[in-house]
Design goal:
alpha/beta; 7-stranded mixed β-sheet; two-stranded parallel ribbon; disordered C terminus
């Protein structure tokens, strides 16, 4: 049976943070048709047990069995979803669930993919990243442009809302398993003629980030360069002006 909103939360060793996150998400969903899908990416710290013991309505856990990466975890969750809309949400709630409304307004206006952003005029960055992560992000954005994704200041924020049918079609096509999946998502959405916009959201840096500034950065760079090759048979359905709002 379909629901109004599916919330997909990837989790890797999130036993400490996940309980309060689920409390907050469940409270925000009271009275709304929804499902919460936590996708465990091979955790070894009891993350699955936390979800199973939580007791929130419409909550279920999907286990990957081994660590495959954030992109793989989100892909599994999206493909298992039934929602009219699908929210991708990080386990640390760096962007609070209460910011959902600004993304929903974008979809109400006809957008298919709304990217929460830390880098547009309406963003509210409350605790900033350390300088080396800021530098890494700027370097990565330059590489993204080389991959053919132009006009976006922040594709990596972990708070995104998509039309449900569009989300399931996009993720069925996607191949990147780790952190560069965001770029693949935007690249594919644009090539298939969907409207993609950035929407400023509140955001607080988590000191317990799962992104390693050296090892994961190298993997992300490699994966971004692979995107065009992985989808080399895809032809754009329309010409899209790649511009955030």
């Amino acid at each position: 049976m379909s629901v109004d909103l599916s919330i997909v939360i990837p989790a890797y060793n999130e036993a400490r943070r996940l309980g309060p996150t689920l409390d907050r998400v469940a409270a925000a969903m009271v009275g709304r048709s929804h499902e919460i899908l936590v996708v465990d990416d091979g955790s070894v710290d009891g993350t699955v047990a936390v979800v199973q013991a939580h007791g929130a309505p419409h909550l279920r856990v999907i286990e990957l069995g081994r660590n495959r990466g954030k992109g793989a975890a989100i892909r599994r969750g999206v493909l298992a979803s039934t929602g009219r809309r699908v929210l991708l949400c990080d386990a640390d709630l760096s962007t609070p669930i209460e910011a959902l409304g600004v993304l929903e307004a974008a979809l109400d206006a006809g957008v298919q993919v709304a990217l929460g952003s830390r880098s547009v005029a309406t963003s509210d960055v409350r605790v900033r990243q350390p300088w080396y992560r800021v530098w890494m992000g700027k370097t990565f954005n330059g590489l993204i442009r080389l991959a053919g994704v132009h006009g976006f200041a922040d594709t990596q924020c972990g708070f995104k809302l998509l039309d449900g049918e569009v989300a399931r079609d996009l993720f069925a096509r996607m191949k990147i398993d780790r952190f560069a999946f965001d770029v693949e998502l935007v690249w594919l959405a644009l090539r298939l003629g969907h409207r993609v916009v950035e929407v400023g959201v509140p955001w607080t840096n988590s000191p317990d980030s799962r992104v390693h500034p050296i090892f994961d950065a190298a993997s992300m760079f490699k994966d971004v360069l692979r995107i065009r090759w992985l989808h080399r048979g895809l032809r754009p359905s329309v010409v899209v002006e790649e511009r955030p709002v």
